Amino acid sequence: MTILVVGASGATGRLVVEQLLHGGKRVKIIVRDKTNLSDFAQKHPQLTVIKANILAINDEQLAQIVQGCSAVICTLGHNLSFAGMFAPPRALVTDATQKLCEAIISHKANNRVKFILMNSSGVRNLDLDEKISNAQKAVIFTLRHLLPPHRDNEQAAAYLRTTIGTHHPLLTWVSIRPDALVDHLQESDYKMHPSPTRSAIFDSGICSRINVASAMRDLVCDELLWEKWQGRMPVLYNSTQA
To answer: In total, how many domains does the chain have?
Structure first.
């Protein structure tokens, strides 16, 4: 089993890579700089590093990269800096998601390829009746129009829901929505819910990045878990905050 991880040098992505390698999986990563990876990952014989900007790779090259991969994990996100939020590319997550999905579809694997997107608890699943307060609606409206990263996350999720859908013959997906991310050194119990159990704006819980990585690993490796959540947008919390 080979898994492609995009965004592997980020705070969550590098944890995903480590957990997959610890689990004996072959991993490919697309990174511009691998120095953020741990020594364990950089020296691991099961890791293949492709140095590139995901948005600069042409369609044919990307189709070759995804060939033979049973799963693709995207942990891309915008840096929390002025340039990271407002400078191009403003649709980083959406554009990368679309490119990756089109590459998966183009090589026509015999089995449906899993695509896992790291998103945000502040993004609503419009396939469900996720009720939020008027105050939260107002905040999200403001975020959508003033902060490109929020709009980008919404559009990436919408692409999976509406363009790929739940019955695509070549591609199946899960969009994980962790609540407020924190850094913990150890894995702990986590819970996934179909919708938020608390306000992402006014009463957010916490979710450790290492637990996000664990959830992605578990979705790749556990077929029953995948069957439960495929085509859905589970919200992820540490168990003590769920």
So the answer is: 1
Give me the mean pLDDT over the 172-178 stretch.
Answer: 98
Whether 233 shows a pLDDT value over 90: the answer reads yes
pLDDT band, residue 148 (cuts 50/70/90): confident
Query: Is the separation of the CB atoms in 33 and 9 below 8 Å?
Result: yes
Confidence of residue 147 (pLDDT cuts 50, 70, 90): confident
User: 37: domain range?
Assistant: 2-241
At 88 the pLDDT is 72
Taking CB atoms within 8 Å and a gap of at least 24, the contacts of 55-59 are 55/89, 55/92, 55/95, 55/96, 55/99, 57/30, 57/99, 59/99, 59/102, 59/103, 59/106
Specify the CATH number for the domain of residue 56. Answer: 3.40.50.720
Please state whether beta strands 235-238 and 190-193 pair in parallel, antiparallel, or not at all (unpaired).
Answer: antiparallel
Please say whether the dihedral angle defined by the alpha carbons of residues 103, 106, 109 and 111, taken in this order, is positive or negative: positive
State how far the Cα of 205 lies from the Cα of 224, in Å rounded to an integer: 26
Q: Taking all residues of the chain, what is their mean pLDDT, rounded to a whole number?
A: 92
